[in-house]
Amino acid sequence: MKILVTGGAGFIGSNFVFHMLDKYPNYEIVCLDNLTYAGNLSTLDSVMKNPNFQFVKGDIADSTFINELFDNHKFDIVVNFAAESHVDRSIEDPQIFLVANIIGTGVLMDACRNHGNIRYHQVSTDEVYGDLPLDRPDLLFTENTPIHTSSPYSSSKAGADLLVQSYHRTFGLPITISRCSNNYGPYHFPEKLIPLMISKALAGEKLPVYGDGLNIRDWLYVEDHCKAIDVIIHNGRIGEVYNVGGHNEMSNIDIVKIILSKLGKSEDLISYVTDRKGHDMRYAIDPTKITTELGWAPTTMFADGIEKTIDWYLNNRTWWENIISGEYQNYYNEMYGKK
Ligand code: NAD
Ligand code: DAU
């Protein structure tokens, strides 16, 4: 089995590469990533010498390059993690999200169509469903919840999802889609809430909480997301969407307070700042379909996952300190120049 993993130098993609190489010693993994600011080659250091692993630098939106790659490898499955992923950046500069997230998805699927109808998995997000009100805890996102996006990021992911479904209906491309809630864990880029707050707290800097901090996210340990994708690409029904989440809703302010408490820091560091534009109030996933159909269930509960995550950031300071200092850009250039 040969799998193309796009965006594998990012947070979830790299964790997926580790999971797959570890669980399936006979599988070959080709990781394609164009190493944007969010892709970090050093994250993949531990697998670079694995004979079943190959890293390729390239852009999923570059059709000439993608077609050559597919000519040179016979992929059995394509798993597309590659995307611009940060909501705040999409508010500052929407255009790059459209190219990477929508055009890139189309280019990959055309390559799948033109190279023997390769199975294609789209890693999507619960943000395509928009948000839920805080005063209706009974409401959850199911696979039938209408698409109703808020940010340029979520709109670009929803556009990609619709395109993926159209390729199934129109061309018979064997696709699946997963829509997961917020992930946390090792190698999470320190612009996102949990790693940002850990790094700020350790530096004794103010922790910027948007608005009143009462927005709710549904947190899942990254390894559990990787396991869900693993079962979907092996056993998921073609043409289907699977929601992925572990019923772990928490407000932002509660997350921030947990991090401060675990690091022994004062809540005086909390600073309420101007809210994100169009800020979604609450996300909450109903994972009934994936649990009943495919037997998936999360294995890491939040209390353990957040401990593991904070420990990881304490024990891997070089990884995120280099990113924050800008050193990682030099690292890429040096490392990639040698490969
Ligand atoms: P990330 O930003 O950490 O990683 C994205 C990776 O994609 C980076 O390595 C980047 O270099 C690469 N990339 C971006 N544009 C590319 C392009 N045009 N060609 C090739 N590579 C490109 O993101 P993440 O948090 O790991 O998210 C991965 C996927 O999972 C995304 O599609 C995202 O929408 C989805 N998702 C994320 C979460 C979450 O909580 N982080 C939850 C649900 C779904
Ligand atoms: O739900 C899945 C999505 O989760 C993924 O599709 C996205 O790729 C991923 O980035 C994430 O989106 P969010 O917008 O939920 O994540 P973020 O870490 O940016 O923010 C989480 C919450 O914390 C959100 O309510 C905004 C808030 N926040 C965020 C930052 C960066 C703050 O209050 N302060 C901050 O500095």
Please give a quick description of this structure.
The chain has helices at 11-23, 63-72, 87-92, 95-114, 152-171, 193-203, 222-235, 252-262, 288-294, 302-315, 317-325, 327-338; strands at residues 2-6, 28-33, 53-57, 77-80, 119-125, 175-180, 183-184, 207-210, 216-218, 220-221, 241-244, 249-251, 270-273. It has 339 residues and is α/β, with parallel strands linked by helices.
Please render the helix and strand layout as text.
Elements: E1 2-6, H1 11-23, E2 28-33, E3 53-57, H2 63-72, E4 77-80, H3 87-92, H4 95-114, E5 119-125, H5 152-171, E6 175-180, E7 183-184, H6 193-203, E8 207-210, E9 216-218, E10 220-221, H7 222-235, E11 241-244, E12 249-251, H8 252-262, E13 270-273, H9 288-294, H10 302-315, H11 317-325, H12 327-338
The protein binds nicotinamide-adenine-dinucleotide and 2'deoxy-thymidine-5'-diphospho-alpha-D-glucose.
